[in-house]
Amino acid sequence: MLEADMKSGIKNIVILGAGNVGTHLAWAFRDADFNIAQIVGRSEAVVAALATDVGADHTSSFSEVKKGHDLYITALPDHAMEEVLPKLGLADELLVHTSGSMPLEILKPYSENIGVFYPLQTFSRKRKINFKEVPLLLEANRMDNEDRLLEAGKSISGNVRVVDSAQRQAIHIAAVFASNFSNHMYEIARQILDVHKMDFDLLIPLIKETASKAAVLGPGNSQTGPASREDMETIAKHLQALGENPGARELYKRITQNIIDQSGQSDDKL
Question: What is the value of pTM for the model shown?
């Protein structure tokens, strides 16, 4: 018997969804010597490729999910769960979702044993990561299910925590600001540089140092720039230069005002 199996009681896993999250979870569990019993998803080609990669059976029909396995991981978009979950036909199999924003209770009609297995990371299929560094946030409807998820989680991650649905939603909102919104800002920066025929690579050292400094000092203690020092002359020049990009100009204005407001220095400078 595998060491991971003896610890968690979980041997065979079904992954529902072959997108970014499902792919990385399948890789992580495969690398930890779990058996991926089945991959299920809408795109036959994508599902078949992932199933081949992890040595699993596969189907593109959610009504053909194999019953009786130890863990069913629903790695689907939030809007797809209401459509897909009724098709599974599970009874008491351990069923979890991977959503940061959906409550545990959404799974109640579909199994007696339910939980959440939320990896706090940004995933892309084209980029492999060290899953041992990914925080895993867990929740379950019973202590025995929580114990099983904890042991399975610790087999693939070195940072596993139990949080409730309200905490997880707050973490998800914070993650949107820290990751999704930040990445959108990188894209705006790239577009600004592109207009002037300059490469985004110029900003890479700055991006790395900003993230590193925030991790060490905390973001509040790391804030620099014209807004933090209330340099209204420089801010005005930037807003004028952004005149032909109204979307970026409005974002610059609003974020600048928010930084000034949070510093407690003044109100409505802009």
Answer: 0.88
